[in-house]
Inverse folding.
């Protein structure tokens, strides 16, 4: 199996708002949890070839360092890149509305008398699925680590955030300078 970027080269230029709406509405309809980046990757890099792997990874990085919800940031950034400010608004709305409607439906079921014997198992099933999707996203985006320096920065983040359970702002304060130093060092070589 080849790398995820194998296939046609991304098509340059803006996309029609209808195409942006369709792509982001589908992502909003079928994705949930921490693995949502994998859906963005599948829809925009693998299936539609609207972005290259490096462009997508850059967008993910930017969406994670600016304030706000990462997925909303990513939708706004990619929507703007693909269709200007109308694309950004379209992407965010189409990403949020399907999930919001489903959440309202679940709230209605929950407060409408869904049997308690179903709530616990359903919640555990959704949690397991979210963990699986997040793991799949990490495997799919493994191409972001191209050399030992990248792997060391990734290992530092896993250690600080995953093992030592540092708050994210402290992890960023340590890992961002390390990543910048790595990039500067490798560029010099």
């Amino acid at each position: 199996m080849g790398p995820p970027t194998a296939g046609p080269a991304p098509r340059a230029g803006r996309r029609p708002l209808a195409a942006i709406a369709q792509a982001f509405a589908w992502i909003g309809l079928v994705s949930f949890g921490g693995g949502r980046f994998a859906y963005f990757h599948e829809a925009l890099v693998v299936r539609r070839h609207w972005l290259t792997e490096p462009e997508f990874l850059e967008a993910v990085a930017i969406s994670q360092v600016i304030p706000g919800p990462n997925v909303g940031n990513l939708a706004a950034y990619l929507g703007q890149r693909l269709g200007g400010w109308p694309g950004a608004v379209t992407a965010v709305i189409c990403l949020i509305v399907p999930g919001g409607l489903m959440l309202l439906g679940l709230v209605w079921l929950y407060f409408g008398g869904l049997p308690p014997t179903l709530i616990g198992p359903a919640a555990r099933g959704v949690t397991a699925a979210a963990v699986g999707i997040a793991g799949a996203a990490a495997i799919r985006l493994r191409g972001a680590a191209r050399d030992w320096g990248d792997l060391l920065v990734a290992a530092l983040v896993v250690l600080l955030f995953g093992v030592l359970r540092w708050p994210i702002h402290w992890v960023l304060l340590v890992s961002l300078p390390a990543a910048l130093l790595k990039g500067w060092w490798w560029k010099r070589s």
Q: What stands out?
A: The mean pLDDT is 83.
